[in-house]
Amino acid sequence: MYDSDCVVVMGSNMAENHPVAFxxxxxxxxxxxxxxxxxxxxxxxxxxVADIYAPVRAGSDIAFLGGVIKYVLDSEKWxxxxxxxxxxxxxxxxxxxxxxxxxxxxxxxxxFSGLAPAKGxxxxxxxxxxxxxxxxxxxxxxxxxxxxxxxxxxxxxPGEGFAPLVKSLVRPSVLKDETLQxxxxxxxxxxxxxxxxxxxxxxxxxxxxxxxxxxxxxxxLANSGAERTTxxxxxxxxxxxxxxxxxIGACAMLQLLLGNIGRPGAGVMAxxxxxxxxxxxxxxxxxxxxxxxxxxxxxxxxHDTLQDYIATELIPTGYWANMPKFMVSYLKxxxxxxxxxxxxxxxxxxxxxxxxxxxxxxxxxxxAGKVKGMxxxxxxxxxxxxxxxxxSGLRKLDWLVVKDNWITETANYWKNAPEVKNxxxxxxxxKTEVFFLPATQVAxxxxxxxxxxxxxxxxxxxxxxxxxxxxxxxxxxxxxxRLKKLYANSTLPRxxxxxxxxxxxxxxxDSERKKNEPSVLKILKEINGFFTDDPARHxxxxxxxxxxxxxxxxxxxxxxxxxxxxxxxxDRRTPDPPGKxxxxxxxxxxxxxxxxxxxxxxxxxxxxxxxSEKKKWVWxxxxxxxxxxxxxxxxxxxxxxxxxxxxxxxxxxxxxxTAPFIMRPDGLGWLFVPGGLVDGPLPTHYEPVESPVANxxxxxxxxxxxxxxxxxxxxxxxxxxxxxPYVLTTYRLTEHYLxxxxxxxxxxxxxxxxxxxxxxxxxxxxxxxIKNLDWCKITSPRTQIRAxxxxxxxxxxxxxxxKVIHQVGMPWHWGxxxxxxxxxxxxxxxxxxxxxxxxxxxxxxxxxxxxx
Length: 852
Fold this sequence. Notes:
The protein is α/β, with parallel strands linked by helices. The protein is globular.
């Protein structure tokens, strides 16, 4: 971001919530005049240092971004500057022709073709929350006529590996129109889709003045091209919507159209809110994926055997054709010597998911009595989404383990929750047995963090933990050893996985070993990978992984971080010399393969030359016959720019030397998404599920496929409900951390932000007779809470299609434990979610505010 000529912060208050990262946009602004744009419902400290502040109503992001996309596509610069045409025609799927059965939102009043009632049911186990779902068959690329038989019928011969299966999955070539004029080519579909997103419509839908919107659009366009790049940064104010994935997709589409992907100072930066949230999706605490973004085996898909799994999940062209190597090496890391070709490398022992096991689905099941026990680590569900309903679920557990630094609201819900204090629930009626285990603080253990830009950094222990506080690694390792002991004598085939599980990470240090603290270096070695015939030989990268069982590697994307004993690359701290162009390659280690800018083949033109000297990053060295540059090339090192695609072949041979996006089957950036998303191939403006206004762009009010876990205590307001006329958005403060479990127990931070408040505009305060510091009652369809009024011009009313809409904001850091207590803001929220990743909609719902 330091190399950006313009930084757009949208869906984030970067200055206050990511202050360390925000140094880099500020350095870009101060040192070489970069523009900073902030698009946000509130005027914040990010807005205060921005060159342009654009106010938008919470939840209207796609209307705004769609307007910028239309502005770009209609502009003279985009249509005449050869850079844009060259980038888009060669590096995106703009020329690809889509199936003739596809119908856009323009044709169907705001929905796509393929919409149908959901299979199963929202109220049936495993409680997926869906009422409708899409069949995306009509969204596919048009292709040449198919020939080969179904790949799943192929019988693999002993010893030949998965290569024949991969080759058999290759599909016929797609149809394209290189002139970009065919009405069914992606570029023309995109142009029609966004035709209605005019500046006038943007103003009516978002509340952003037309002049401000145009200033943003022109500044972004002016700072994009061969000589200039713009970057975007977002956080949970984009993700926490029922269409959050589509907001991010709209930004990715805009950046592809502008040539702002894979280049220095470009891209889309997801700002992570914790030290290693990026790491916990790479090495996942997510139910639906295993290491390295491989899909979790599922009982609901054709995953019966390892061959079935690979045939179902494999992308045969592009770099994902190597997936069998990643999967087999992962299984070897799980089951070691017991995993052989004869038993499918232990695939049958691996657990399978049954459906949606995400947070909200789990608590819905918990309320239905389907969950017996819960181990709660680093989470505080008693203050989480629709918190009163989640506490109701906790009361139905037989047992609950809470491992945390302090006795949190979740640990004490049976004793101090509001419904217990007011007599609504009696402690004697709660059957749950609660165990509390004190945890170490981060400085009291060692290990590796992966931060927001995929950078792994090793951190060392700074102090010993007091008393009986234990680390998360100690707890997990000790629990695993105890479970293995319990299963050791079982004769049930279903328990073979536990009996064969590799679980030997004894610490090298005697004192640590006595505390059951495992060796993080042994764990990292398993994550990195090594050769099974010579365990001392670490893998130097994922290119060494095999599908024959000769390598073990838990997480292929992390392979290379620990290439040998004494070579812990995440522990490097050597910066580049000042003034020298570079990617800080000797500071920590970034996945994949220490590449700092992903898909950086796009930083060179189709011939392999830098787009400009100013934005030079990676290029083809014709003399050396390889890709070189300031960064590690994100490409096959010796694949030349003039290499031709070989139709019918798998892997990288299927892609030409001009295809930068090697993890896509066509090697292109997707303006139109034919697969992978379940809510549509193009970003479309929908209103939040709870909204005071109608959708001005389409007849369809909300995304038709959002998840709603229906039931008592999770009611929703209808559009325009006069009982809940205001938009409510939630956010974080610099002084507190999440639900407060790491900040409200600290006197210094509790003193800096001592109590809960609700930000309201002077206009709304006058209308409601509320003065600064008055107590207010905030009500949603779920419940009501109290907070002090903070009357401030940071909040402002919006005019939406001629109607004044007020918006209020609340931080969500408080609860009923700790030194600083307050009502739980998340009690106002509902259990509704985006259908792709089950993310809740906490950034835009409705409420009423009254003087208390």
